[in-house]
């Protein structure tokens, strides 16, 4: 019996050290773009109306991720007043699928995206991935669901669009478009498609395209970035690696230093959002990519793609302390604002890796327009309150929402699925 127990524990330890289980992050981090620089992997995701926007995470093993920075310090667009709730509302708009890459020749990071609710494409640049990030140009067209390629000759391209997929060549500095052509028109079989990512491998150009939901295709050209392109299926409702959630789709692929390739897709996990799942891919003799399925399904568990390398946890504690002591304290990078630059949030400013309060808060009747937010999917959250005259609200927001309010006497009130904004008594 003891021998069996020891062997069982040993087998469990080996399993824990050599495999990972999907999802790799239990958080709403959709529309993934991925790049590798040396042995570091960077993950960019949509953030909608949250500010700062376009969150960046880092990993060294594709499984353990840490929050690092944001490509968009604040939502400073032509429709900023609407994002500020001064002349309209842009909730659930803002930063959708966007492009993110690094250009070695100029040692520059690029982020760009068409801002939903604005209609223009904004390009941000930075000398390091941590920042500072600067809005460098406005492109007066919507490069919808864009993915970028920096080709072997250092020319830069953006794949974009829906149903008809286009490729745009970027200017030498990467800040404008100098050529833009439709390279693939969807077929009757495919219908609506979007979510382009752009790659080059072994002399062929690839466009990674989603047919929502839940299928994925790939386009391939051996002629050039402007095609012509052929297409093949990658995913067609292939499994539910997270029980109770949807099928993997969209996302991005990336290579490891030894030439292996991996795919991070997202899937819908109601009510928390779209969470990332990881799987290896392989290439057939004709140069077409395939996900490594188990029984024709995206598996829940796969071998670790790389040796594990711990990073700063994506869960943790934010003390906040007293407001007067927060002048020089940076709030961790997983916090954002649900809205931006209202009276409440102007007391804070963006830093390279997070947010810092620069003066005491202004309390008024509409502070719920702009709560400090953490897009987290958790089974347990602990909230300690020390100052009874401070008001704290913990909310769960999706199609329905609920909140717990701590006020004055530390009494607790729980309301669910009620009208917005809440009535606090």
Automatic annotation (TrEMBL):
InterPro entries membership: Glyco_hydro_43, Glyco_hydro_beta-prop_sf, Glycosyl_Hydrlase_43
Keyword Membrane: yes
Family: Belongs to the glycosyl hydrolase 43 family.
UniProt superkingdom: Eukaryota
Annotated signal peptide: 1-18
Organism listed in the record: Colletotrichum chrysophilum
Ranges in a coiled coil: none
Record key words, sorted: Glycosidase, Hydrolase, Membrane, Signal, Transmembrane, Transmembrane helix
Protein name: Xylosidase glycosyl hydrolase
Pfam families associated with the record: Glyco_hydro_43
Protein's GO biological process: carbohydrate metabolic process
Record's keyword annotation contains rRNA-binding: no
